[in-house]
Amino acid sequence: MIGPSLRRGSDAVSPTAHYTGHVWVRNGLSHPELATWEGRVLFDALRPAVTASRALGGPTLEGLLLARHRVIDDLLARAIESGSVQQVVEPACGMSPRGWRFTQRYGDGLTYIEADLPQMAARKRRALARMGSLSDRHRVAELDLLRDDGPASVASLAAGLDRDRGVVIITEGLITYFDQGQVLGMWDRFARVFEPFPQRRYLADLRLAGENRGPAERAFGVVLSAFVRGRVHTHFADADEATAALRAAGFSEARLHRCGEHPAAGPTRGDPGARRVHIIEAVGQSVCHP
Fold it and tell me: Using one digit for the tens of pLDDT, what is the confidence trace for 247-280?
């Protein structure tokens, strides 16, 4: 188990789950059942700051959130349609609509496991039940990413999956709340736990330290920190350092996609917030599954 100070870091992610849930619903990416009153209150509270930043040509949190979500969606769809993966695990899922949308899109050919800490997992499960989305192929599990083993650990969750089918792990909006050592430990755990599967892919958003050092970037970081009521982190000096760390963790291939340059980001590609985030696409293949 990780120490209590790190557990506070894990708990700090919760406000963003509500805010992002509201952003996805208001932009037509989600089901109304996945919006929460907490998300609406947070969105309204931040609206003046977002409006002012947009008017001045600055980054917006909404632009960042929409760009990263759309690019991850695109990369996930490509992985599924390539036939290399048939299972998805989304830790720290919050009120993400991705499980609902992708199980609707791909039907029984896809198993989608959403996971979060107990309180959020229970709330997500109730919302999906009202939507009629829960099934053997789409379910919500309790997961504590800070556990190395035992109940509610990544290893326990992986044990319930089909080891003859490829898997994608998605952590959206999570890495920024952990320091670099914790992130490296998480990547190592993902690579190790999912090593027996014929293919494992990892998709996540990442803010590079080397690209977030100017005054505008520092101001944006202050806004993010105030929003989550805790410190947010940037990692690695550049893309080469980040991809090298992913390979060292156990992924055979890794690349970063800049959201501000990716076609899938759509109209939010031009938001300066989108230019401040990359999407990780890392791939590993088991030697036991040629």
Answer: 999 999 999 999 999 999 999 998 888 888 999 9
19 CB-near residues (< 8 Å, 6+ apart): 39, 42, 43, 46, 61, 227
| 35 neighbors 256 (Cβ within 8 angstroms) | no
- How far, CA to CA in Å, does 221 sit from each of 97, 196, 232, 238, 278? 26, 38, 7, 18, 16
What is the fold, at CATH topology level, of the domain defined by 4-285?
A: Rossmann fold (3.40.50)
What pLDDT does residue 60 have? Answer: 82
Instruction: Record the pTM.
Output: 0.88
pLDDT of the residue at 90: 98
